[in-house]
C-alpha cells in the first residue's frame, strides 16, 4: 500500500509539474509574440522582408566591394535603425526619402534608390548572393566591425559632401562618419 501511495504521489507531482511548465511556456511564447510586450518581435515574413531590403542595399551600395566594405554598409544601415534618429525598420531606412533643406530637392538616404538608372539595372547573382550572406551575418547573427559601431553616415570616396561630421575610417571606397 505504501508503494502504491508513493507511486500515486509521484504521478500527481509529475502531472502538476507538467501542467505548470506548459502554462509558463505557453505564456512566455505568447508574450514573445506580442509586439506590445516585445517590440523587437518580428514574424518570419518580417525577418525575410527586412533581410531582403538589407541585402539589396548592401548589393547596390557595395556589391563589388570587399567583404569588410559590405559588412560596413549593412552595419551602418542597422546602426540607423537602432539610433532612434531614423525609422525603426530596415526597409524604412533603406527607402527613406527627405527634402534637402538647401535645394528643396527630394533626396534619398541611399543614392541608388533615387536613381532609377541604378535601381533598375540587372542584378549580378554572384555579387547579390554574397551581399545576402553578409546581410544575414550582420542582421541575424550580430556580426559587427568595432571600428564603425558609431557610424551613421558614409559616402563614396570620389565625392565630397563637406559634412561637418567626425570621420571614423575609410573602408573600400567609402568614408564613414559618426552621427
User: What is the second-level CATH architecture of the largest domain?
Assistant: Orthogonal Bundle
Average pLDDT rating? 86
Shape: elongated
What is the number of independent domains?
A: 2
Reported for the largest beta sheet, the result is:
3 strands, antiparallel
Q: Which structural class do the helices and strands define?
A: alpha+beta
- The total of beta strands comes to 5
Flag low-confidence runs. Answer: none
Q: Estimate percent helicity.
A: 40-55%
Q: Could you give the order of strands across the largest sheet?
A: 3-5-4
What would you call the quaternary organization? Answer: single chain
Strand content: 5-15%
CATH fold-level name of the largest domain: Arc Repressor Mutant, subunit A
Compressed to H and E, one letter per element, the order equals: HHHHEEHHHEEE
| Through-space gap between termini | 75 Å
CATH superfamily of the largest domain: Cell wall hydrolase SleB, domain 1
CATH class of the largest domain, named Mainly Alpha
Number of separate helices: 7
Using only C-alpha atoms, the radius of gyration works out to: 24 Å
Amino acid at each position: 500500500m505504501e508503494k502504491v501511495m508513493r507511486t500515486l504521489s509521484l504521478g500527481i507531482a509529475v502531472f502538476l509539474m507538467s501542467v505548470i511548465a506548459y502554462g509558463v511556456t505557453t505564456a512566455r511564447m505568447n508574450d514573445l509574440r506580442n509586439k506590445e510586450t516585445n517590440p523587437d518581435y518580428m514574424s518570419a515574413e518580417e525577418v525575410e522582408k527586412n533581410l531582403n531590403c538589407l541585402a539589396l542595399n548592401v548589393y547596390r551600395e557595395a556589391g563589388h566591394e570587399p567583404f569588410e566594405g559590405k559588412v560596413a554598409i549593412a552595419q551602418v544601415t542597422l546602426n540607423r535603425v537602432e539610433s532612434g534618429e531614423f525609422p525603426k525598420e530596415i526597409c524604412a531606412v533603406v527607402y527613406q526619402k527627405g527634402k534637402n533643406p538647401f535645394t528643396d530637392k527630394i533626396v534619398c538616404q541611399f543614392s541608388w534608390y533615387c536613381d532609377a538608372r541604378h535601381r533598375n539595372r540587372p542584378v549580378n547573382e554572384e555579387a547579390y548572393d554574397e551581399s545576402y550572406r553578409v546581410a544575414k551575418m550582420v542582421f541575424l547573427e550580430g556580426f559587427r566591425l568595432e571600428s564603425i559601431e558609431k557610424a551613421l553616415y558614409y559616402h563614396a570616396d570620389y565625392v565630397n559632401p563637406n559634412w561637418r561630421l567626425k570621420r571614423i575610417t575609410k573602408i573600400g571606397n567609402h568614408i564613414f562618419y559618426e552621427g
